[in-house]
């Protein structure tokens, strides 16, 4: 059914799947045979799976981060998280498109565009952005192309597309899921996580891919929010869209109806973090180091370093850079390592602003169980040439801190989904899933995609 739905809808409209697994049908048949013999491999037995095309698959499919420069040879082995999904019984049916290089190549790239996969589209309204960088994974989950999809996030790449496509997305804390075998941006912020249509599915998948065995489903209770103190964020997190703000107010009412105690709070360091350059300084330094290390694990490619990649893109600019360039790559190549003062000072400042003076302080001062904020604005119009308009979001503090965050459907404006984000400190994945489940069961706010070609506004 998944392959039929992809053939019917995705190839002509949403373009979320960058490559189908040529062995998928054979694997599915073997899973069916296992089931008939009573051999159930795990909790995901037989479920169709799509993973983002920056996650290594040791099979006949390519792993490219959407780049034509990476098509010379497949990866030699599965990333550990994929190996765990296969052991859990999931059937990998393909790879999903993404914002090329997870949106780190250029500062004005179009979300969901890659040289290899071209432009992914939002299934709710096709001329609106799917957001990114886990664009294809979000679209595929929303459109029902697979029961399970996996995305990755450095800052916003799971949360933003999940919100724009009306699904659940959780970025676990850095290190909860192995980063090995994933084309990197930054070791201090990268994390892979589930993108699904329901909180229970996200909890199940995270239980399978986590490095430490945890059954996150135990936290899923309808009364999980009762008596819990939640910090309500406004300030830097609201005011950029009246439609988002109206949905947020309705979400706060629903949280109170779930029994939560709402406390108006402020992350005093959020403005300084947003206005500083510490995050991009960290990302550019870590990108060069991490990507060079990753490329050494990929024999058979024509590029071995970031410098090689920059030269390859220049040589193949007509195919790879028709709309935007690679200034972020060039800035990263100019960095001088992870022992420089520029990097070390940026990292120390980032941890102070996001953790010590940020999330940790506000949660301790107000005795909070979690913080809540709107995920972002309604999906803006696609603009491949200049990049789509960005109004605001909620991910930076948790992203820079390396802490978990979850978004889930909270409503819609003009048929475009809107999300609620919930985040907290290290090790809070189970708690966040429990709170999200209680909110989900109270609101049932998910919007089913209609594949509209454009919005018809009054």
What is the strand and helix layout of this fold?
Layout lengths: L1 H13 L2 E4 L3 H13 L11 E5 L27 H8 L3 E6 L16 E2 L3 E2 L15 H9 L4 E6 L5 H7 L2 E4 L19 E6 L2 H11 L19 E5 L8 H16 L3 E5 L4 H6 L2 H18 L10 H10 L1 H4 L6 H7 L7 H26 L3 E5 L21 H6 L3 E9 L2 E8 L5 H15 L15
Parallel strand pairs: 2-3, 2-6, 9-10, 9-11
Antiparallel strand pairs: 1-3, 4-5, 6-8, 7-8, 7-12, 11-13, 12-13
Helix pairs in contact: 4-5, 6-15, 9-12, 9-13
In brief, what are we looking at here?
The chain has 458 residues and is an alpha/beta fold. It contains 15 helices and 13 strands. It has one domain (2-443): Alpha-Beta Complex (Amidase signature (AS) enzymes), CATH 3.90.1300.10.
Q: Averaged pLDDT, please? A: 97
Number of domains: 1
SSE string: HEHEHEEEHEHEEHEHEHHHHHHEHEEH
The number of distinct β-strands equals 13
What CATH architecture would you give? Alpha-Beta Complex
Fraction of helical residues: 25-40%
- CATH H level: which superfamily? Amidase signature (AS) domain
Q: What is the global morphology?
A: globular
Written description of the protein model:
This protein is an alpha/beta fold and 458 residues long. It has a single domain (2-443), classed as Alpha-Beta Complex (Amidase signature (AS) enzymes). Helix content is 37%, strand content 15%. It has 15 helices and 13 strands. The protein has helices spanning 2-14, 24-36, 80-87, 135-143, 159-165, 199-209, 242-257, 270-275, 278-295, 306-315, 317-320, 327-333, 341-366, 396-401, 429-443; strands spanning 17-20, 48-52, 91-96, 113-114, 118-119, 148-153, 168-171, 191-196, 229-233, 261-265, 370-374, 405-413, 416-423. It has an 11-stranded mixed beta sheet with strand order 1-3-2-6-8-7-12-13-11-9-10. A two-stranded antiparallel ribbon has the order 4-5. Helix 6 runs antiparallel to helix 15, helix 9 crosses helix 12 (327-333) and helix 9 crosses helix 13. It starts with a helix and ends in a 15-residue tail after the last helix. The model has no long low-confidence stretch (mean pLDDT 97).
